[in-house]
């Protein structure tokens, strides 16, 4: 009989599984000299020796693992004795983030991050970034970006332009900047600051966390970041790179700017900001679903980004003030099967780096929102200007006590407890549940609001439990203990042997 692969997989699929990557995402076959240059072997050795790091973790994304062994050998041969190197393959969350959790398993005091990086500030370890060096033609880039500006009838005289690019083109950014300055009118101001190749944790003795993250995330000084961030229509953003999460986040956070992109892989240009409104509309639809939720799950999508713990505490305060129930969950890399196990949760809030925060939840059972979208959903007036924030520090700076503009106000008491709420997602009225309400108005005899636990002292009813209410509504609630009601079973001798041929003590049975 043929073996059913659904129940008895041989494991071949896991070995032969192919990793889906976008074209030109990985370098081709590199000669020894090209590999040295592409992965900045000499610079990495200098930075390690300069910092006197003893245990260094090398973090590779899946698509670059094939080069991990030759890189390891070259670094090991050139570093001074007494330094240990460890290759990190499978990341805890996104490969663009620095995996400080895996690095702590080997007690590393520094990391080298290879490939694409989101450039979020770390909270514990110094990081040496090796982006790789993708090819780009600076002259063709400048010419076609200028052509895109002319085709869209953009007035560029006496305006401010900001150059942004994917991190893989940082090695040619100076040449691109030179060609763009020569192509643009002299009255146009072109701003750019290099992306840093190293990053250090935020400390209390340094400048403020917000300024530090802005410098590293955007790769420019505070003045140009503030200009781009405000998103006034007078700015033009020139982006060098293909379709990616970096470009998506740029469009979302700079929705008022005109963004022209150049893709070095195909040599094409386009006005990318034309689709920004559609992207914001899709996110606004998710926000409306979050307004209807009463039970939230705070998903931990990072353990390395600075200020992630204060943000989680901030979200708990906001949800508690709005009389919402919240659970904090860490499941590693997200997939629909994992989150489907938490059926009592009606909406998830993902705390992750900017590039991993925007999740297209079509395949997920529940909507997934960002912390900023959650705050919009909990605001009493249903309004959104289109402003979008993904940085943790900005959210905390704008609401330091975690209680601004939420829909519920405990000073008003429970006068609106039974008032129905209109849902824009369903087009119907609904009665919102309120968790953390005063006990005087709560119906403690309602079996749907209590979960009965049995322990040595008897039974205890837990009020205000969303999981308990969900369990009471289910037809099957697990096996009952029935302590003291059923007589203990008689112990019998079991079978012995191995699975293919047990020795049965009762041959008459078969």
Automatic annotation (TrEMBL):
Pathway entry: Protein modification; peptidyl-diphthamide biosynthesis
Places the protein is found: Cytoplasm
Claim: Iron-sulfur is one of the keywords in the record: yes
Keywords: Cytoplasm, Iron, Iron-sulfur, Metal-binding
Coiled coil: none
One Pfam family matching this protein: Diphthamide_syn
Cofactors: [4Fe-4S] cluster
GO cellular component: cytoplasm
GO molecular function: 2-(3-amino-3-carboxypropyl)histidine synthase activity; iron-sulfur cluster binding; metal ion binding
BP terms from Gene Ontology: protein histidyl modification to diphthamide
Top-rank lineage group of the source organism: Eukaryota
Classification via PANTHER family: 2-(3-AMINO-3-CARBOXYPROPYL)HISTIDINE SYNTHASE SUBUNIT 2 (PTHR10762:SF2), DIPHTHAMIDE BIOSYNTHESIS PROTEIN (PTHR10762)
Subunit structure: Component of the 2-(3-amino-3-carboxypropyl)histidine synthase complex composed of DPH1, DPH2, DPH3 and a NADH-dependent reductase, predominantly CBR1.
Function: Required for the first step of diphthamide biosynthesis, a post-translational modification of histidine which occurs in elongation factor 2. DPH1 and DPH2 transfer a 3-amino-3-carboxypropyl (ACP) group from S-adenosyl-L-methionine (SAM) to a histidine residue, the reaction is assisted by a reduction system comprising DPH3 and a NADH-dependent reductase, predominantly CBR1. Facilitates the reduction of the catalytic iron-sulfur cluster found in the DPH1 subunit.
Similarity comment: family membership: Belongs to the DPH1/DPH2 family. DPH2 subfamily.
Protein name per the record: 2-(3-amino-3-carboxypropyl)histidine synthase subunit 2
Species, as recorded: Obba rivulosa
